[in-house]
Amino acid sequence: MKILKRFIFIVIISLLFGFQSLIANDLFFSEYIEGSSQNKALEIFNGSDATINLTDYRIAQSVNGNGWQYWHEFPTGSTLDPGDVWVMTTDEAAAEMQAVADEILSYPSVVHHNGDDARGLEYSTDGGVTWTLIDIIGDPDEDPGDGWDVAGTPSATKDHTLVRKSSIAEGSINWAASAGTNADDSEWIVYPVDTFEYLGTHGENDTTPPTLVSAAANTSTSVEVTFSEQVDQTTAQTYTNYTINDLTVTDAILQSGGMTVELITGEQEAGYAYTITVSNIEDLAGNVIDAGSTIGFTGYEEGPTTGQLMFSEYIEGSANNKALELYNSSSQTVYLDNYRIAQSVNGQGWQYWHEFPVGATLAPGDVWVIVADEASQTLLNASDEQLSYPSVVHFNGNDARGIEMTTDNGATWTLIDVIGDPNEDPGTGWDVAGVAAATYDHTLVRKTSIETGNTDWTASAGTNTDDSEWIVYPLDTFDYIGTHGGGVGGNVVLSNLDPAPGEAVTVTLTYAQQLVDPILYWGTILQDPFSEIPMSPVKDYSWEAEIPGQTSGTIVYFYIAATDTAGNPILFPDGAPDDVLEYDYALNDFQAILKVPHYTFSPLLGETFQIQYSAREGDKVVLRLYNSEGVLVNTFTNEFSSGTKTIEWNGKDDNWNTLPPGLYICHLEVINPDNGDIKHAKAPIVISAPLK
Predict the structure, then answer these.
(1) Is 3 helix (H, G, I), strand (E, B) or coil?
(2) Residues 521 and 465 occupy one common structural domain
(3) Is residue 692 part of a domain?
(4) Which has the minimum average pLDDT: 118-132, 141-155, 476-490?
(5) CATH number at residue 645
(6) Is pLDDT of 691 > 80?
(7) C-alpha torsion angle, residues 226, 230, 234, 239 (rounded to 10)
(8) What's the number of domains the chain is made of?
(9) Mapped to the 3 state alphabet, what secondary structure does 463-522 carry?
(10) 363 near 214, Cβ under 8 Å?
């Protein structure tokens, strides 16, 4: 009987330990996020069919390869249901991360990790006397520098999201095997920085096929095609999955990161519009791209020999809210290897230079945003580069920045744009647009009318809102980051620069100091009295008013008048009401539109009269003036229309004689050159006699 009891005891113990071991193996890391700022998280998955008591588990922490040093224990009594996950985030993580979190932790904590800090999952079968490692991310005894490579992505544990593949059912303490060397043999899928959509469930759960994002010619015989996500290496490198009109494709090479494929092609014709058709490409979850997906690119052209990159925004905000935005004003893709940013500190001349990531490109009309890595989430979300201190964006108001360009592979560099003077220390900052020390504690936005850089900082900065190339906004204005330009002029922004007929337009005024009762004045005919709309405050230093929608072919003119707190008049633009801002409603259909002021005028007193007419581009327009007896006295124009125009008439006839007082009829004739159809518009004009 003693032998039997001992046997039964051994069986019970063996079953118990076997059951506990099974549970332990079924708990493992399912997601790791090392994102911008404090967007950091860990996710743990229960793959068993039993509820797990998390008191039997803890997370081991290593910092910079110094072995396991700290341990995180789960809240007392915490459990994890079968198939569920446990999510931990920092208390400064993005709202969508915190929304799915089971623990939100303040600094320092297990989720305040950098790319070189290993994390391990440990399990105890004896109430915490001994602990066994059952899963791991990184190597606790190694400092890899920025981070460990995963699935062939360099330093993937930094500035990336790692998601355990859905096929993985247990943890691994062999980090080299878990990380793998490519997308196929790794247990992890590597996603770009700040990918949060998979947090809260195990595995990528990806049912969305990849899509084409961009295509650009690198050389006359190669094109880079970028997908929306990482793609399967085998299908991506099957060159027959790609066809290009009028070009042969001879090879396809998946680039580091797994989202971009370089296609080797026949010789491209410079500037020629090509179309790539893609089929059979799979993402890492096996989803197949829609058959016949297409994207265009332009045949390779040699880079420009003059500057086509310019600063479009500069932010020197509170704390580390600092950013630079660069704009490609050209009609072709810019290769950023040919550019760099020069840096000056406190007027000591150019001392340092920032180089862009190797191979980086910037599409026509696009911007490249560089921010400090501790900037606000709004800036981080808009960024292409996030830099730690010291860097090109860790500037103060008295630190100049310049864009330099090379046309000989870096042998020589030419300055093509500048903010500040590298050889001057202005104290707090440089004045811009009449705002004192505007490069400090302000946002500077390049006006949309500016399309090229300027190495004359004095001229670029200007002396007022009209002659400056820049709009000065208050501290921590981030509204315009990510697109070129901040408004139609001065500090004024429109909700739509190209409104549809009948669409109202919101005018927003932002100014660097408090204003009293700003009023918007607007009209559709310059010489008629303007309507008034009081502007409503929407936030500090910002006001809005809405101008009603207008018919097609209408130009809307407007300006804003206010006073500062000292009672001084402030006008936008400075020269108002003589100078005004404007926008128009495009005319796309066959019409004849004629508008004149509703008052008389006297040429003998030197007065002029504005006649505004509109017709669809390409239609023939003839604008004539007849006297009250129907006699033609002036033909103002006889041409093909280019849209809406205004004529400033001095009251003279075709022979330059001043017309006598009386009633005249202005007549617009618009002819459709395609079918000969004609439309007419008429308006009366009265020339008055001067009062004696």
Answers:
(1) helix
(2) no
(3) no
(4) 476-490
(5) 2.60.40.4070
(6) no
(7) -10
(8) 5
(9) CCCCCCCEEEECCCCCCCCCCCCCCCECCEEECCCCCCCCCCEEEEEECCCCEEEEEEEE
(10) yes
Measured between alpha carbons, how far is residue 433 from residues 230, 326, 518, 519, 616 in Å?
46, 20, 20, 22, 38
pLDDT at 551 over 80: yes
Task: For residue 336, tell me if it sits in a domain.
Answer: yes
Q: Order of strands across the sheet with 644-649? A: 593-595, 609-614, 644-649
442 burial type by CB count under 10 A (0-12 exposed, 13-18 middle, 19+ buried)? buried
Q: Can you tell me which residue has the tokens 């046997």?
A: 7
Taking the C-alpha atoms of 63, 64, 66 and 68 in order, what is their torsion angle to the nearest 10 degrees? 30
**The predicted structure's pLDDT at residue 676:** 87
Place of tokens 């007549």: 667
Which of 239-248, 256-265, 668-677 shows the lowest per-residue confidence on average (mean pLDDT)?
256-265
Could you list the beta-strand ranges (E) of 527-616: 531-534, 536-539, 542-547, 555-564, 569-572, 581-584, 593-595, 609-614
End-to-end CA distance of the chain: 138
Distance separating alpha carbons of residues 149 and 171, to the nearest angstrom: 18
Percent of the chain with pLDDT over 70: 92
The reply to whether 168 and 91 lie within a common domain is yes
In the structure encoding, which two tokens stand for residue 495, read together?
């909700």
Q: Do 38 and 171 lie in a common domain?
A: yes
The enclosing H or E element of 413 equals none
Where in the sequence is the domain holding 547, given as residue range(s)?
492-584
pLDDT at 692: 61
My answer on whether 467 and 507 are in the same domain is no
Average the pLDDT over each of 194-203, 352-361, 400-409, 666-675 and give the range with the smallest value. 194-203
pTM comes to 0.41
Query: Which residues, 6 or more positions from 230, have their beta carbon under 8 angstroms from its beta carbon?
Result: 151, 183, 189, 190, 191, 257, 258, 259, 283, 284
Q: Please, are residues 663 and 686 in contact by the beta-carbon 8 Å criterion?
A: yes
What is the rounded CA–CA span in Å between residue 303 and residue 186? 39
* Distance between CA atoms of residues 532 and 512, nearest Å: 23
Same domain for 44 and 121, yes or no, is: yes
CA distances from 113 to 62, 98, 106, 467, 593 (A): 9, 17, 12, 49, 66
Going by pLDDT thresholds of 50, 70 and 90, the confidence category of residue 539 is low
List pLDDT tens digits, range 74-114: 999 899 998 899 999 999 899 889 989 999 999 899 999 99
pLDDT at 24: 46
Q: Which amino acid is at 295?
A: I
Whether 133 and 30 map to the same domain: the answer is yes
> What percent of the chain stands above pLDDT 90?
55
d(CA 579, CA 597): 18
Distance (Å, whole) CA 206 – CA 427: 54
Same domain, 382 and 504: no
Question: Does 303 map to a domain?
Answer: no
Query: For residue 499, what are the CA distances in angstroms to 435, 502, 529, 553?
Result: 32, 8, 23, 11
Q: Are residues 218 and 185 in the same domain?
A: no
Q: Is the pLDDT of residue 498 over 80?
A: no
* Average pLDDT of the segment spanning 212-236: 88
More confident residue, 439 or 616: 439
Q: Residue type for 557, please?
A: Y
The count of residues in the chain is 692
Q: What is the pLDDT of residues 518-533, one digit of tens each?
A: 999 999 988 888 999 9
Give the side-chain half-sphere CA count within 13 A for 25: 9
Given a cut of 80, whether residue 10 has pLDDT beyond it is: no
Per-residue pLDDT of 624-647, as tens digits, reads 999 999 999 999 999 888 888 889
Give phi and psi for 193, each to the nearest 5.
-55, 140
CATH of the domain at 274: 2.60.40.1220
